[in-house]
Specification:
alpha/beta; Rossmann fold; pyruvate-formate lyase- activating enzyme; 2 domains; 7-stranded mixed β-sheet; about 40% helix; globular; metal-binding; rSAM; catalytic activity; iron-sulfur
Length: about 575
């Protein structure tokens, strides 16, 4: 039984400016497959290798796989569909599988436009994929697939075609039992430009207990689970010593949620002497940095070098729209604390909603000058079609070409400006911010790792700008303010959108939020769940029985229950 995993050849001009990122999904799935006894697993990274359709067809034809699997986020869905179409053309008898967050919730549309996809894996793939392989290996795939939890497929009943979604599979409870096969990757390809070293993307936890309206990760992973910190460090130590990784970014939505385990993780890295060999970065929330002020020296000692903060918006109104619990003043304080402790800090702004104006964009720039982050990133609002915020703004969304849902293309059209002006003003913010940093900040940022890292980030920006890859500027024809009226985003207007299917998908954080809303909707804080951080019990993950019990207790206790329901 030969299994072929393929990372689709998709590029957007976003995160790629920092280097080539290793597809962690392939390593985690390959580890599960081999643990189940299937050793013949091959991986093609068509994205990093820029493998075109003809070359991909040739490789698939030569490999003759029995099963071909790929994954997709929303902007890469068409490339993923095309990848499996090529596989089916070259190996008609092969089973074609598609996973990832987009296919999980948009499976009806995906199967309708790509009927050559034999099955969609909905949710975490490790356990589901093994069951799919066993069902296919039996030679009775069509008979046995209906018993496999967590998949969707096209079936024909009495001559009528219908799309079937089986019962959702449970989430992977034993994360410590997952043993990724990182050796499936060709590590010399995955270079992180800022430090000129190999980069990895392991994860310490899955899911998020918070329900930010613009985010899909909490909904996809459903419940929040944390690995044993020592197991995570075991994995990182192997990556460092065997695969020569010099920098990693934790893939977690917010690795500092469980402070106790995050501290244990840092202490374990220090105990093994790993900060001398590897530096790392995280995404986290402003509130966590404020909470952990006294722990920041420990975090830096453990090798934490880059923190990306979701400061999000210029106006508090937008923070409220996104269900963020932070206040604008908190952002400046968090940035000051990180810089004081020698940690490079990046401020992220979401721009491009319908109420965006030239003034609000200018305000974000003024905030960077006041807050003084080391790095700044302006991301175009991208309305994932399976998020609560999309449902609220759906009547204002005009573009359904998912390939452009990439954080660098203006999907929404602000009322007060056209998309070309929006792009131009964002680029103006980038030009001013990094011009000042290049002249007056980075060269004088000390003599150690911090200075080296910042100059490396500048190199990555300059390289992407020179190659016209940053923000896809070359593809859209942007050459500066004089070209803003001629920019062409090449939207495929023939693309339409079906409704997402989320009703059969239970996310514990969402259930808890609904229970709280029933009690006192005014007090709900969807992202963060309250003024305090999760307790150790909550951070370990909560089963549905406990959740139901808490909801029932809350209903009886009335408003007093808010103090006890920080799920």
């Amino acid at each position: 039984m030969r299994l072929l995993l393929i990372h689709p050849n998709y590029h957007s001009g976003g995160a790629e400016i920092a280097g080539n990122w290793p597809p962690a999904w392939a390593a985690y799935l390959a580890g599960a497959i081999r643990k189940a006894g299937y050793e013949d697993v091959i991986f093609i990274d068509a994205m990093t290798d820029h493998v075109d359709d003809d070359e991909l067809a040739r490789r698939i034809r030569e490999l003759k796989p029995d099963i071909v699997g790929t994954t997709s986020i929303t902007p890469s869905i068409y490339k993923a569909e095309r990848t499996l179409q090529i596989a089916k053309e070259q190996c008609p008898e092969a089973l074609t599988l598609l996973g990832g967050v987009h296919a999980t919730f948009m499976f009806k549309q995906v199967l309708s436009e790509a009927p050559w996809v034999d099955a969609i894996v909905r949710g975490e793939g490790e356990e589901i994929l093994v069951e799919v392989i066993r069902a296919f290996e039996s030679g009775e795939w069509k008979e046995r697939r209906k018993a496999v939890k967590g998949i969707a497929y096209i079936d024909t009943v009495d001559g009528a075609t219908q799309i079937v979604a089986t019962e959702a599979a449970p989430t992977v409870k034993d994360l410590d039992g997952i043993d990724p096969d990182w050796d499936i990757l060709e590590w010399d390809k995955y270079q992180y430009i800022p430090l000129n070293c190999r980069v990895a993307v392991p994860n310490m936890a899955r899911g998020c207990p918070f329900t930010c309206s613009f985010c899909s990760q909490w909904k996809f992973w459903r419940d929040y689970r944390v690995r044993d910190p020592k197991k995570v460090v075991d994995e990182i130590q192997r990556l460092v010593e065997k695969n020569k990784v010099g920098f990693f970014i934790l893939a977690d939505e917010e690795p500092t949620i469980n402070r106790k385990k995050f501290v244990q993780f840092c202490e374990e890295l220090i105990a093994r002497g790993l900060p001398d060999k590897v530096q790392w970065g995280i995404n986290t929330r402003v509130t966590d940095i404020l909470r952990d002020e006294e722990l920041l020296p420990l975090y830096r000692k453990a090798g934490l070098l880059h923190v990306s903060l979701g400061t999000e918006a210029a106006a508090q109104l937008k923070l409220d729209l996104f269900n963020k619990e932070t206040k604008v003043a908190d952002n400046k304080r968090a940035i000051e604390l990180l810089r004081k402790n020698g940690i490079v800090v990046e401020a992220q702004f979401i721009v491009g909603l319908e109420n965006e104006t030239a003034e609000t964009l200018e305000e974000t720039y003024k905030m960077t000058q006041d807050w003084k982050p080391d790095l700044a990133n302006w991301s175009m609002y991208t309305p994932w079609p399976f998020t609560p915020l999309f449902a609220e703004l759906q009547d204002k969304v005009e573009v359904f070409d998912f390939e452009k849902y990439n954080f660098v293309t203006p999907i929404m059209k602000p009322t007060a400006m056209d998309r070309g002006e929006l792009l131009d003003r964002v680029m103006n913010n980038y030009r001013r911010f990094y011009f000042k940093k290049a002249l007056f900040s980075y060269p004088w940022a000390g003599s150690g790792m911090r200075r080296r890292y910042l100059l490396g980030c500048l190199k990555a920006f300059l390289k992407a700008g020179f190659q016209r890859k940053f923000y896809d500027l070359g593809k859209v024809g942007y050459w500066g303010p004089q070209s803003r009226k001629t920019v062409d985003f090449h939207f495929d207007e023939s693309r339409k959108m079906d409704e997402a299917t989320t009703g059969d998908w239970k996310a514990l954080a969402e259930n808890s939020r609904k229970a709280q809303a029933h009690i006192d909707p005014v007090e709900i804080k969807a992202c963060g769940g309250g003024d305090e951080q999760l307790s150790d019990e909550d951070a370990e993950g909560i089963d549905e029985a406990t959740l139901a019990r808490r909801a029932e207790e809350a209903a009886k206790a009335g408003s007093d229950a808010r103090a006890h329901m920080r799920v």
